[in-house]
Amino acid sequence: MINDRGSWLVACRKCAQHFAFDLRNPMESYSADCVIVERFDDDVGPYTGNAPRPGASAVYQLDMNPDEPRFELDAFAIFKCAKTGEDLEAAAFLALGKSWLRVADGRAQAANQMLARSQLPAVEHAVFAVDVPCSCGEPHRAIFYHAFRLDGSDMPPLDDLLLADVSGTDLTDVLTGVLSKTDVMQALEKLIARWRLFSDQILLATPFVAHQWKTKAERLAIWERLLAQLDPSRTMLMTRGATFKEYRAALIEFGLDHDMLSRFGLENRIVGDGKRKQDSHAKVYMGLGDTCEVLSGSANVVKGGSMENITFQALRRAKVETSYLTPLGISLPEPRPRLSHHLLIDCRDGEWRWNIMSGAAPKV
Ligand SMILES: [Zn+2]
Ligand SMILES: [Zn+2]
User: Fold this and answer.
1) What is the 162 CA–ligand 2 centroid distance (Å)?
2) What is each CA distance from 213 to 180, 217, 283, 304, in whole angstroms?
3) 11-29: per-residue pLDDT in tens?
């Protein structure tokens, strides 16, 4: 009974409209995205109704909004000692790993206290600060975090924490110059992880996402990797209409109709809400807040070996408005308000402790 062919009759969770999907293993597969009204095995009794068929075979496997940012240790390093150039990222994970049991204990205590004492303010992130040794002799302080929910969920594994900052490093130095496309994209992924903690909003303005010469499978992979890194409620993607259409073409190539996806509520919100501007060739990626960080240069969102010129700057908000947002014709929507506090777990005098600190994120 492996690879039986068949169909599902499904109902949209929002409007209850029925659709028919053809797929393999109709009896064993499952879906969290729609209500399965009835399953049909072609050998037993195929579906003969006339519900519309999107021609999709992969909907039940695709997670269009994974929103699971990752910090890839193997990728291009952005946190390097400003004095020695030493890569501090692996050392930071190692330093936190050494104290992992006490760190996890501090987080569990905090979660229990927050559940027990309802007057404690809500937090969006659990933040971990740890000293990182370096051959320069100065201690570096690394900031890790994860999205914090008071639902009794366990601390994620160390590999799933995001590294947002290391003191005594110089992003402007590391991210200004000529880098390969792949290095730029890997750096951008790490910056997005950083901006998700420190910034109110993220703006990605790029005329091209993936290149014409890539296969549709590769293009879709680039889109999905990018979208997984982003929080739809805080991100603006500004790209050319043709680029947006290419994304839809890649989806359709995989049997997923964009309009069908939006009817199912599956369409990725970041792309759906993206501002589309035809006449801009600017490639600008920024984390926006009272102070902003801007990565800009010649790189579109695509990986590859060719070289790109890139610049990183920390700028005041007013400068970003005048020099970037106004010329690009962007008026940003109000960001979803951030919570007023964060949970900080750090080590002082050899003791790991937890505190509810003011501000959505620590000051760096
Ligand atoms: Zn619907
Ligand atoms: Zn150092």
Assistant:
1) 20
2) 17, 11, 19, 11
3) 766 566 677 777 766 676 6
